[in-house]
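Help needed: design a sequence for this.
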């Protein structure tokens, strides 16, 4: 069974082909401070300062992240606890005979990957085995072939230009040269000279948290390919437990994403 998407991109870069778009249950209401005033991005603050603060806030609470580029049948969702370093990333890829689902489980220091395929021509994609691909640090290094979903918000702090386009809405360009540690080692080939000024838009909620982030990562034949992220459900409980011993596979083969 051939899966060119998997071979070319792996689990993380496949996140560029996602469906999603949930909204934050926190809404756009500012949080009252002790003196009764509202907290959130100051209206007169420099856009770059506000956006850098919003990028940092992503690591303050658990959240649900969905990624979208408009491709039907493909999707990625991440439920993540940044303080506990635990969560589950699920990517679905439409293929000719069905759907491939890739689940990446991080629990404590360990990372596991399970692949479910529409048939069993690749035995290790059995939808049952959680392949132990190493510790979080090692797995993160191995996964640099693709996008690190848990860190992509940090690129909003890159140097560039930014301007306010509306209430809690911003746009501009970012210099993403040298950010293969987050965007994947293939990003330079995708962006080329455009990496120095990648167009972006961002939206914050009333508490200064990033809720939408869009990067225009490629353009060809009049079509713009975008990495479109939605952050929502801040503070949600995240359960990410180690799989049962009989379901864990060690020494994962090379066709397991992240190895």
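Sure. Designed sequence:
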């Amino acid at each position: 069974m051939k899966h060119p998407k998997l071979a070319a991109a792996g689990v993380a870069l496949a996140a560029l082909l996602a469906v999603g778009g949930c909204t934050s249950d926190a809404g756009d209401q500012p949080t009252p401070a002790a003196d009764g005033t509202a907290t959130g991005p100051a209206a007169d603050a420099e856009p770059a300062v506000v956006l850098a603060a919003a990028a940092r806030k992503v690591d303050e609470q658990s959240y649900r992240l969905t990624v979208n580029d408009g491709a039907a049948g493909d999707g990625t969702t991440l439920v993540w606890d940044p303080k506990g370093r635990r969560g589950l990333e699920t990517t679905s890829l439409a293929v000719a005979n069905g759907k491939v689902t890739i689940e990446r489980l991080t629990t404590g220091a360990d990372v596991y990957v399970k692949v479910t395929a529409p048939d069993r021509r690749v035995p290790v994609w059995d939808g049952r085995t959680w392949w132990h691909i190493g510790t979080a640090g090692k797995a993160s290094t191995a996964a640099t072939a693709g996008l690190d979903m848990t860190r992509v918000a940090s690129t909003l702090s890159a140097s560039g230009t930014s301007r306010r386009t509306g209430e809690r809405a911003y746009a501009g360009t970012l210099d993403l040269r040298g950010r293969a540690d987050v965007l994947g080692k293939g990003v330079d080939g995708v962006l080329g000279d455009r990496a120095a000024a990648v167009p972006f838009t961002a939206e914050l909620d009333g508490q200064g948290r990033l809720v939408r982030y869009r990067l225009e990562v490629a353009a060809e034949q009049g079509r713009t390919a975008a990495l479109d992220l939605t952050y929502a459900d801040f503070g949600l409980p995240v359960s990410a437990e180690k799989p049962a011993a009989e379901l864990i596979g060690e020494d994962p083969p090379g066709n397991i994403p992240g190895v």
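Confidence is low (pLDDT under 50) at residues 1-38, 139-144.
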